[in-house]
């Protein structure tokens, strides 16, 4: 009778343990399912990386989460120009070939447990407190595209004595999400980026100016618009060929990107014309910025196919508006007026001798007095480009 009672007690204890284990597993699976939904809902690569590198760490109570991505053509890095990976800085790493990835996954299978010092230095550089880990191969179309490293300071957190099917499934989901984000963003990028100069195209500019006018109206802030037209650009193509002309346009695009704020919007509006939006920038500041750009363009040295240096100049038209100056309920009409004024200012700069900045007020605004900047100096040009 006593043995039967003991057996019954043991059975109840085992049942409670099994019930607790089942509840824990269900909770873990729900946690992974919720995270899976969030992964698929990410709309861009930066958002996805923040979810993986930041929220995974807290959500799964990990000591470190590192990610390595194969990116031989900079497809991912080009989408992350303004993205700052979380600390420590080595949590995100890009590789140009599969050599390092294959050293982690010679059989393309999950690795769990304590890592050897050489592998730990690859998976968790400068993180010596990792005592157990799960290294997840990210595979698409039977090709290693990356590696996700989950690290813990608990030596029993990951062990090769257990199966981790749910982690393998998570790795497959992450690989799909990374590929989808890169492909979708690159498709969108191709539709709004001028591939020659790497600045935005006219279609993107026409959409952005409406957004910026709306913001300027809501927040009662000024918006300035610049038109840049390269002087005598046709002669560059005629004298040096279209390849050198393309080289000039690429150089101008790079110069503009490097010398403006992240909030400014630069687009190739057509041919040798560039358009720039300067949010929260009044007319005086816009004129200063325009002359700085004009001066940098005038001093930029370019080489033709014979390695002979030459320079080019630009005429810049400036206008601006404030919410108080809006005369149209229709933002499209307001955008048209702003662009027309900037375009007229460019023609004015051309008529006054080129290589200068001119301001044109909107029709409903009081004309402002500006001294146009004129630094025509033919001695700047190793190769003179004249009319």
Fill in the keyword field for this structure.
Alpha-Beta Plaits; elongated; Beta-Lactamase; 19% strand; disordered C terminus; five-stranded mixed β-sheet; 2 domains; 10 helices
Secondary structural class: alpha+beta
What are the low-pLDDT stretches, counting only 5+ consecutive residues below 50? Answer: 366-387
- What is the CATH H-level superfamily of the largest domain? Reverse transcriptase/Diguanylate cyclase domain
Biggest sheet layout: 6 strands, mixed
CATH class of the largest domain: Alpha Beta
Known CATH architecture of the largest domain: 2-Layer Sandwich
Mean pLDDT: 85
Spell out the helices and strands N to C: HHEEHEHEEHHEHHEEHEEEHEE
Rg from Cα: 30 Å
Shape: elongated
CATH topology of the largest domain: Alpha-Beta Plaits
> For the terminal residues, how far apart are their CA atoms?
115 Å
Q: What amount of the residues lies in strands?
A: 15-25%
| Number of helical stretches of at least 4 residues | 10
Commentary on this structure:
The C terminus is likely disordered. A six-stranded mixed beta sheet has the order 7-8-6-11-12-13, with helices on both faces. Strands 2-1-5-4-3 form a five-stranded mixed beta sheet. The protein is 45% helix and 19% strand. It is built from ten helices and 13 strands. β11, α10 and β12 form a beta-alpha-beta unit. Its EC number is 2.7.7.65. It holds the Pfam family DUF484. It comes from Amphritea opalescens.
């Amino acid at each position: 009778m006593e043995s039967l009672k003991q057996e019954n007690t043991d059975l109840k204890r085992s049942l409670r343990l099994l019930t607790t284990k089942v509840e824990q597993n269900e909770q873990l699976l729900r946690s992974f399912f919720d995270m899976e939904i969030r992964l698929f809902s990410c709309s861009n690569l930066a958002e996805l990386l923040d979810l993986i590198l930041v929220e995974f760490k807290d959500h799964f109570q990990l000591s470190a989460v590192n990610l390595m991505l194969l990116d031989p053509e900079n497809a991912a890095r080009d989408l992350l120009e303004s993205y700052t990976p979380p600390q420590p800085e080595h949590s995100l790493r890009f590789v140009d070939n599969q050599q390092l990835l294959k050293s982690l996954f010679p059989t393309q299978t999950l690795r769990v447990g304590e890592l050897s010092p050489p592998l730990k230095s690859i998976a968790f550089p400068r993180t010596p407190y990792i005592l157990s880990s799960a290294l997840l191969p990210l595979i698409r179309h039977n090709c290693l595209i990356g590696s996700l490293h989950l690290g813990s300071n608990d030596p029993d957190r990951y062990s090769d004595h257990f199966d981790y099917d749910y982690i393998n499934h998570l790795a497959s989901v992450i690989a799909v999400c990374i590929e989808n984000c890169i492909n979708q963003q690159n498709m969108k990028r191709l539709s709004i980026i001028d591939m020659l100069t790497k600045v935005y195209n006219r279609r993107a500019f026409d959409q952005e100016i409406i957004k910026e006018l709306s913001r300027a109206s809501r927040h009662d802030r000024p918006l300035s618009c610049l038109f840049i037209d390269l002087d005598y650009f046709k002669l560059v193509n005629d004298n040096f060929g279209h390849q050198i002309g393309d080289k000039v346009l690429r150089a101008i695009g790079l110069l503009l990107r490097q010398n403006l704020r992240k909030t400014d919007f630069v687009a190739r509006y057509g041919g040798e014309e560039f358009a720039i939006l300067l949010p929260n920038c009044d007319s005086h500041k816009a004129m200063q910025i325009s002359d700085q750009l004009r001066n940098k363009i005038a001093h930029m040295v370019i080489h033709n196919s014979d390695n002979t240096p030459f320079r080019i100049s630009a005429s810049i038209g400036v206008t601006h508006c404030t919410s108080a100056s809006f005369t149209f309920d229709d933002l499209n009409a307001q955008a048209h007026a702003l662009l027309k004024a900037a375009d007229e200012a460019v023609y004015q700069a051309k008529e006054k001798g080129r290589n200068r900045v001119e301001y044109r007020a909107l029709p409903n605004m009081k004309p402002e007095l500006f001294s146009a900047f004129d630094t025509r100096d033919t001695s700047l040009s190793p190769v003179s480009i004249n009319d």
